[in-house]
């Protein structure tokens, strides 16, 4: 088997010289001009058959079944697979793509959300004099600039602070970050700079002050990874590729080459996961872009093939937005075990991660409690003691599997470079493995170049540099204002639609229903604290969403931001999808349960709920126990030893507070460990102990009972005069 290390072949090597020849303003203008020229070149003479409306999933499946032979069949709908499909179809190759789950359902939706060259990879390249790793960083920095250009609605530059706590580290880190700028050359987003201690705290007030010397700020890109992946896949579909999610490869099709007598891969037997129907998809070339599942398809081609992919799990957590500034990230360059932790604002929340541990390949990775607590400990090391980092503030957590390429005997995943390899088997199966999210486009270009050469395909040169992705056309930074003015959407909702759908946001707004309120005029939210609206569920179906999980995880990002909010939105999402797709009641129940299971296991709901269990210790001192028992007995007037919704409702009515009965059931159910419809005194004390330790936060029952108690104490006893007399 011939392996080819993937090195960039486009002309980025002279970036540093160009940067030196220009001043900063001229440099930026040069870069913009180059980007415009690239865009013009990419768009020139490209036909977009489905510019107005995407073909339905059924139409796509029919194309897969009925087309006699494709030039290229891509297996895998992650960033790399979608990138391969877009590259192929824009070279005028007849292209198909199949994905056994949803687009971006695997690693591509579970990243750190950064578009970056890799500061730590550059450090290793310099320290180890590794030219290949240096070129990988250089390639990634070029791709970073291109990605920010072709999807400006989904991505943006992000300043990242590197706090320094020892004087000698300041020049060391400064030199490293300046080298990062230098390697980027004309693709440098903004020049890095040094901050004094006072300025660092002004920008990042949550930072630990003790022994802080100063900080260095550099720039990388940030994006909405799942939406970016989807934009690539939809762009391929608009250009004429037949793409279908929930379509798995059952086996590879082979035929004998009449000249050599050898077996050659000539397509795949596929199965529509939603119906079970099987059909053949014939293709001159099959590309394996299945990420962590790379070896599964390679062994489908040849059973005794050895593994080339060593998976590594990376866990991330999401905590409330108040833990970080709105426009500044943080990098911990040396954690307690030598790893790197990012602490970044994302979608008005804060994302922290990642870990790096060897793992087994699975379609449903689960975030471990040890990894969650490791990230929390590292975050605490960098934040002020005034900021209490609580386990209960983890709103969501997930694990993604990195498809690292390595010697199968290696066990140290931390030292593995995330470069990629392109391999071609004896039977002609083309495999693209490894790599980074940022370099998906150049990886796809490399893969298609190899496929065209090895299979003698007639194709045009690559045209994806500068090719604008789904939604980029028509987007401007002020587009949201038109949405507010033309449709009567809330400002926050309009900003969200513009940054998620770009120029297609108007199509979503047209589907939004009238609220019946004075303001907003249209756009009913799925949950009150997030800007996702019901119309997005309908639009998600047009974007090939087939399940409720597709909507909460990848069309919107609600499941990644707050599992409880996603859980609350699920019944409404299932209702809207069920009505649109004519689901039976049995199907609706099945969808609801599957989505709840996804949130429970894969999005960290299980870890969150297990912070309060029947075996939780009560760690309260005597005065606290007395205080909380007194609070409990204000609701348990009959001294039953437990409270029900009736008890809580009675107290609330006495202070003129009204809560819907269903909502009250949900509030008590969060604490009702026995699930017997009531909260015992021990369960309440376990709750308050968990709140004290930070294992549980934002408990609605705890806050409600405390507020009610304070209101009762403030009002005091009702006098006879105020009660209107008596007998």
TrEMBL record:
BP GO annotations:
glycerol-3-phosphate metabolic process
* Keywords of the record: Calcium, FAD, Flavoprotein, Metal-binding, Mitochondrion, Oxidoreductase, Repeat, Transit peptide
Q: Where is this chain primarily localised?
A: mitochondrion
Pathway annotation: Polyol metabolism; glycerol degradation
Residue ranges occupied by any EF-hand domain in the UniProt entry:
623-658, 659-694
Q: Which domain of life is it from?
A: Eukaryota
Cofactor needs: FAD
- The protein's Enzyme Commission number: 1.1.5.3
Q: Where in the cell is it found?
A: Mitochondrion
- Which catalytic reaction applies to this protein? a quinone + sn-glycerol 3-phosphate = dihydroxyacetone phosphate + a quinol
Give GO MF terms, alphabetically. calcium ion binding; glycerol-3-phosphate dehydrogenase (quinone) activity
Q: Can you quote a single GO CC term?
A: mitochondrion
The record's InterPro entries line, in alphabetical order, gives: DAO_C (IPR031656), DAO_C_sf (IPR038299), EF-hand-dom_pair (IPR011992), EF_Hand_1_Ca_BS (IPR018247), EF_hand_dom (IPR002048), FAD-dep_OxRdtase (IPR006076), FAD/NAD-bd_sf (IPR036188), G3P_DH_FAD-dep (IPR000447)
Protein's job: Calcium-responsive mitochondrial glycerol-3-phosphate dehydrogenase which seems to be a key component of the pancreatic beta-cell glucose-sensing device.
Q: Report the family membership.
A: Belongs to the FAD-dependent glycerol-3-phosphate dehydrogenase family.
Name of the protein this chain belongs to:
Glycerol-3-phosphate dehydrogenase, mitochondrial
Q: Which organism is it from?
A: Fundulus heteroclitus (Killifish)
Q: What is the lineage of its organism?
A: Eukaryota, Metazoa, Chordata, Craniata, Vertebrata
